[in-house]
Structures are given as structure tokens and as C-alpha cells.
Amino acid sequence: MLVIVNGTLIDGSGRPPVANQALVIEGDRVRSVGALPAGIDLRDDRHVEILDAAGRFVMPGLIDAHTHLSYGYPVIPGEGRGRGPTRPELGVLKAARSAQRVLRSGVTSISVPGGTWFTDVGVRDAIRLGVLEGPRIHCAGRMIITYGSIEDDEPSWLGTPDHGVGVLCNTGDEMVTEVRRQCKHGVDFVKMADSRSGEVQTLAREEIAAVVDEAHRRRARVAIHSRGAGSTRAAAEAGVDWIIHADLAAEADLVAVAEAGIPILPTMTFLAMVLEASGRYGQETIQMDVGRMKRHFDRLIRVVEHARQLGIKILCGTDTGNNLFMPFGELHAKELEIFVTYCGFTPMEAICAATRDNAYVMGLPDDLGVLEAGRLADVLILTRDPLADIRVLQGGQHVAAVVKAGKRVDLERLGGDAPLALS
Ligand SMILES: [Zn+2]
User: Fold this and answer.
1) Are 333 and 62 in contact (CB under 8 A)?
2) Which residues place a Cβ less than 5 A from the ion ligand 1?
3) Which residue, 5, 179, 343, 412, is most buried by CB atoms nearer than 10 A?
């Protein structure tokens, strides 16, 4: 039994912070919060481990709803083009190392919308089996794409090699077959990629619906990359489980999303970091249209505000790992700062988005994200108050302790800084 005594409890439900006597954890779950239950003897050190959080802040472990573990950045000489390392062996080891960095920064769960091979499935299972320590992972496989979609990066005569992040499926039948293949290999959800950057739709609504139908039949869910208004509307009508970005959605599109009860995962951190990185490395080096990214960022501020007015749930994710300038363990809480600074969230609302609300993308909406009796015991203890300054959640710099599924994480064990090539 692990008992966290003292500390200010921010339980993730949105309730105001309270001084807490004891958070009792038995096995992988919270047994109680509040007063220490009768019958527990804190002096019984054979059965009770005590973690004193006096003067500290106790909250649910963070969930990043958008992290990629198996993209291939940085590009290694001799490796192929595309987003992934061509050698799966190297990709798996990098992903495993990166996962450990994520957990030690206070992020106890990540949702992974796409990667190479079945790397993320493998790392997820290795963590589950206790082969290595890492965050809880809920993952997709390679993204379902068509000619011209995001991640269709090779000439058509080469197609999409297995080390790519996308897998070409140019008909509904091919998509359904790919859903079946990915489900066979254990994905938690299917990632589709529509409208690379704007209004051009690369998937038909019927195709999205066919994927949703097949995935749901196999108890997998569907998330979609959608920047354009038309694809956001089509995704809502086809019944996907969450929409990633939705930057260009207009009023009527958001109404359709609200009616379908689908959450939006805007992922503004990536856009903010493109702007920052272009200042640091130059636009040529990062090979991205910075002006367009700035416009998307500004549009997203309005989309998020508007979506919240319509009662659409906003999820909190960063796109960590999708590029060289998106390092693991550093940015997972940057989205909360952006929500507070630009989108009218209070710090408490931002914390709830990254805990209680993000539990949805882990497939555990009633089990994760709130510290109350019966739920999974993922706990983050901070030396500073995140409600006073939301930035203290970033980079693990104020983390005093991390507990995942009732077990304390050894914050020292990873040791040293991984060189850039492994980050
Ligand atoms: Zn992404």
C-alpha cells in the first residue's frame, strides 16, 4: 500500500484544490482520498510506504493526447527518406528510450496517433509486460492515406514503404482491409489522414464511414487528421471518435461536430513550435511554410473558443516527437499554457483537459484522469503550484514524484541526458 500524506490535492475533476490528509493507493488503484481510513497504520512499514507531500501539489498524471514515438527524426545518414527510420530495430530502441523520458517528465499516459511499422504497439506491450518502464500507451498504426494526403511522400511508383508513417489505401475496400490488418496486430485505434493543410479533401465521406464502421465492429476507434472545413464536416458526419486539428472549421462545421458529440484535439503546440523553431533554425532548415502555420494558429484560437461555446470537448495534445524540434519529455504541458494564454482557459480548466478529459483518448474515460476512489492511481507530485503558474508542468523540472498504476517511478534511473540523436 502506498499512502501519499499531506499536500494540496488538485484531483483533476475541476473541484477546487484542497489540503489532503491521505491519498491511499492499493494495487494499481486509488482506495481513498481525504481522511486516512480507519485500520491503516502508517507505522506499519512492512505494508505501508509513505510519500510525504507536505508543501507540494498532488494531481493526476498528465496525459498527452498526441505524441509520436516512432517517427525517425533526426534523419540519420544512410537511412531512407520519409518520416521513419528504415530499420525497425533502431526505431523500436529509440521509441523505448523516448517513452521513458516521457514518463519521467510526469506524463503517465500518451495517445499515439500514428507511427512506423507496429513499433508503438510493440513498445506499448513491452511496457504492459514490464519489459521496460514507460507511460500507458494507446496507439494507432500507420495512418490510412490516399494519393496526395499528408505522409504520401514518395513518388507514386514507389508507393508507401513500411518504414513510412502512412499506408496508401486508395479505395474504400483497401482501407477496410488495412483496418482489419491493423486490428489483427493490436492497434487501439485507426488514424486516418485527410486535408493535408487546407481545403483539399483527400478522403471521401463514404470512405471515412467505411473505416469507422469496420474499426468499431472490431472495437477499435478512429481518429482523423483534418485541417480543412470540408473534411472536418465529413469526419463528424461519418462518426469518427475524435478530430485532430480542425483549424479551418467554420460555424456550420463545428455545429455538426457538436451534434455528433465528437471532441476536437487542436494540437496548437506544434504550430507554436514551428514558429519558434523558424526563428532559431531558419525557415529553410525546418522546411515549413511559417506564414501558413501562423495563420493556422490564429484560426485555431477562434475554433477552440467557438467549439467550447458549442459544448465541444477540447482535448490536450502536442505532437511531440513528430519533428526534430519537438523533444520528448519537454513539451507535453505546453498545450496547457497555450490554452490559458490564448484560448481563455483557466489553469484549472487546462489541467482538467489534460487529465479528466484526455482520459477519453486513452479509452479509459471513467478509469483515469481523476484522483478519486476506484480509479487508476496515476499521480504527479509537484514542488510548485500549477494553478499559480501553468508553466511549472513543463519539462518535468518541478516534478517531485511520479506514480503510475500505483507504482513509484524511479526518476533517477534513466540517468544523464540522451544525446540529441536519441531524443
Ligand atoms: Zn501528429
Assistant:
1) yes
2) 319, 322
3) 179
